[in-house]
From TrEMBL:
Function: Catalyzes the methylthiolation of N6-(dimethylallyl)adenosine (i(6)A), leading to the formation of 2-methylthio-N6-(dimethylallyl)adenosine (ms(2)i(6)A) at position 37 in tRNAs that read codons beginning with uridine.
Positions of [4Fe-4S] cluster 1 binding: 42, 78, 112
UniProt protein name: tRNA-2-methylthio-N(6)-dimethylallyladenosine synthase
Molecular function terms from GO: tRNA-2-methylthio-N(6)-dimethylallyladenosine(37) synthase activity
Species of provenance: Algoriphagus sediminis
Keywords: 4Fe-4S, Cytoplasm, Iron, Iron-sulfur, Metal-binding, S-adenosyl-L-methionine, Transferase, tRNA processing
Membrane-spanning ranges: none
Family under the similarity heading: Belongs to the methylthiotransferase family. MiaB subfamily.
Amino acid sequence: MENLIKDIDIITAEEAQACDFKTTEDESTGKSKKLYIESYGCQMNFSDSEIVASIMKENGFDTTSSFEEADVIFLNTCSIRDKAEQTVRKRLSQFNALKNTKPEMTVGVLGCMAERLKDKLLEEEKIVDVVVGPDAYRDLPNLVSQAEEGSKGVNTFLSREETYADIAPVRLNSNGVTAFISIMRGCDNMCSFCVVPFTRGRERSRDPYSIVNEARELFQKGYREVTLLGQNVDSYKWSPEENNKARLNRKDEVSEVYNFANLLEMVAKVDPKLRVRFSTSHPKDITDEVLYTMKKYDNICKYIHLPVQSGNSRVLKLMNRTYDREWYLERISKIREILGDSCGISSDMIAGFCTETEEEHKETLTMMDIVKYDFSYMFFYSERPGTLAAKKYEDDIPLDIKKRRLSEIIAKQNEHSLERNKLDVGTEQVILIEGTSKRSDEQFKGRTSANKMVIIPKGDFDKGDYVKVKITDCTAATLFGDILEINPSQI
Ligand code: SAH
Ligand code: SF4
Ligand code: F3S
């Protein structure tokens, strides 16, 4: 789920670590006020900002890319590591000068930091007028108008039901080809290092029909790829009974439970020319049924983000990941058996978790040697207040050791990324064109089913087209290709 990279063609693993944010773009539909949002953290947060923009649009706001001209500034924040929070605090202090010259401007902190720190944020950051957690965005217009009248406000109510299913997101930073769809919110897993269950609340799944409708509408507007988002998509579970059939006024429904494999199939059937991706899969929950569903549909991309966190069973137990090294490796074998060697697999890794020994760290490296991930997001452990690990274990690995272990993990990943990419050289792949390459106006970029970015010369086609290419060269982060066929029958 952690995806801090936006529209970048060529990245190294180190660059992927760099904290990045997305901002709103200019939109003029004649509304009287301007909203600027800066979004940090994971795709889930970026997707939430699209819901926030939609709610604010209904209430008289167009988006802007310039915070100087905004009436309202929102920072949609992340708490996953200490550094993510520090970045936001620094950013708030940068807005101080602007607020001094423009005191009528409203500054809001949304998202995970808002949820974690609640009214403490108003005390600690004087510039902030509103603090709103991830389940309370419907209250934003109300809180903003109160702030305009001089009273600061906080709403960090966590809901067991809110999925914003009825809100059509305003697509921000859109390339018009790929889009995110949130399919669930919250997380019930309680991994001991992780703050998400506290900032996002209980897990709940969104009505599958609203998901399919959103995918269909996107396809009709020209989008060709959707990514289904959740902290743990494999635990998607929805039943009309539980979700109060009467309230939803749905009489045509059969009384059954929809799992993630069912949902994936429903979205895949929207159109064979709509690619479907998903993130994140949890190793304890990913089922063979999901893998067989992926195999059955060409338009479900053959790529799985399956974060391992550590290669050592004792550390995994302390992390409360509820699987061990053997279980994880069995899941990898199953993926290879059902989907073959070309299926892309990526991971998240944490170096230097509490009490991790040198030998245990080496097991993360040997895990990497066995799996050969195409890509990974790699971090050193950052203790988060209130988590199980913070309460139970000592954060006892010195920073320099954490950093050295992390650099070993990064070096290994770079080797493997290159090795995996080299296997693609000489093969034919179908890519979906997402737009012009950042490196040159003469080149397009698009991704393979396995989620690898390919750079090709511009031909007689446009964004949103599928192109069959021959891979001619690669780096650890990017493939380069020649055009073979435009709009092939297989995608
Ligand atoms: N739901 C996803 C992960 C979401 S958080 C999953 O279970 O895989 C994204 C990643 O941030 C995690 O996979 C983990 O690698 C990293 N992370 C989370 N908490 C962290 C912490 N306290 N210190 C360092 N990295 C952390
Ligand atoms: Fe955090 Fe674990 Fe939930 Fe992922 S599955 S969001 S790491 S608690
Ligand atoms: Fe995402 Fe960061 Fe929250 S990773 S769920 S924005 S803590």
